[in-house]
Write a structure and sequence with these properties.
Chains A, B: This is TetR family transcriptional regulator. The structure is a homodimer of 200-residue chains. Chain A contains eleven helices and no strands. With 200 residues, chain A is mainly α. Chain A has two domains: 1-51, Homeodomain-like (Arc Repressor Mutant, subunit A); 61-197, Tetracycline Repressor, domain 2 (Orthogonal Bundle). In chain A, helix 2 (32-39) crosses helix 3 (43-49) and helix 4 packs antiparallel against helix 5. The N and C termini of chain A lie far apart (66 Å). The first copy, chain A, binds a DNA duplex (30 and 30 nucleotides) through residues 1-5, 31-33, 41-45, 47-48, 51-53.
Amino acid sequence: MPKRVDHAERRTEIARALVRAAGRQGLHAVGMRDVAAEAGVSLRLVQYYFESKEKLLLFGLRHLADRFGERVAARVRAAGDDPGPRAVIEALLMAALPVDEESRLFHHLYTSYAVLSVTDEALAAQPFIKDPDAAETTLAGLLRQAADTGLLRAGTDIHAEAVGLLAMSAGLGTSVLVGQRDADSAKAVLRYHLDRIFRG
Amino acid sequence: MPKRVDHAERRTEIARALVRAAGRQGLHAVGMRDVAAEAGVSLRLVQYYFESKEKLLLFGLRHLADRFGERVAARVRAAGDDPGPRAVIEALLMAALPVDEESRLFHHLYTSYAVLSVTDEALAAQPFIKDPDAAETTLAGLLRQAADTGLLRAGTDIHAEAVGLLAMSAGLGTSVLVGQRDADSAKAVLRYHLDRIFRG
DNA sequence: ACGAAAATGGTACGGCTGTATCATAAAAAA
DNA sequence: TTTTTTATGATACAGCCGTACCATTTTCGT
């Protein structure tokens, strides 16, 4: 039949253009025409691959979440061959901080989506925003593993620590993003709290 | 000369309409006409009191920050006649959580402004977003006071704890806002971490 | 009273938005 | 080669946006 173009790949390409444009102008200010121009295609093509803007936004969010997942996994892998729980946890939490351009972009857009989800029920229904965070389960699992190996201080509430650390990491990330704090200071705070949990 | 209307009060009134409309539709979706309708005045009047939309947004942010400051102060006052540092700190941190409609609104819009400030330098220059948080100084002061009275565990890094607690409170607030977590669970996590810092 | 300044209303303009329509180029299947 | 489906392009439309302009009412200083 037609020119045989890989739809999935093309959609991803357009989603990447959306992310780039949104990083420059802010998600609220990016229109279909901006995405088309950024991707170097015609407006009609963007409409063809995503019937509506809402579909494009939803796909963009999924794309972003996927890329973030890969990023975290890569960081964890890079933490060493057989890293202890502490190193894995540190890699996990640090990966969420906006230290370089890519993570800044991610944090910026993910927060944009979160804000939109407050008033947009289609976005709010997306699992990345709605579900009890998968990161929480992962982190709690790592902490339990550390506790079972006797690495943690006695009396540590694993669930409360997991939730608290994730919230802290997210909050620190936001303050770094808006320029209230620099990345190194945020890292130092996170490390202090890990030192506090793991017995010296 | 003219009808002698209190400008400051009228501007505040319009800013409150902005906040209400933004809470309903999202800050990104609210226009001058929405603000005018919400305030029950003509579009021209909104333009008259704020020459441009940007000025309106800036004033709205200041208004929001002021209201939040008052809210926190009220909560702290309500904490008791001569409350200990622990009670004051708890009131401080809890006040930031989106537990009722007013605090949800505040958290929602403040986050919206934070996102906008990433790509809007006029917003980024606003002290509420740019400055080293005043809350951090306050909280650190309270913690120091507690430490001097021997209420804290030994080896507590006051600065790291202050920064961490604030970031955690903000992060928890966001996850409550987007429906990832309920307010009670967020409160419980915060209390756990206060218990951890204050010696039992 | 009168004029001037302040406050308010009505409305129009240019530009941008997302979407729909019409047309056509490309390529695989027959 | 013809047909048929997919992919792409150009353009138009209705609606909303922030802003500007023109007019008018209101009220205070003189």
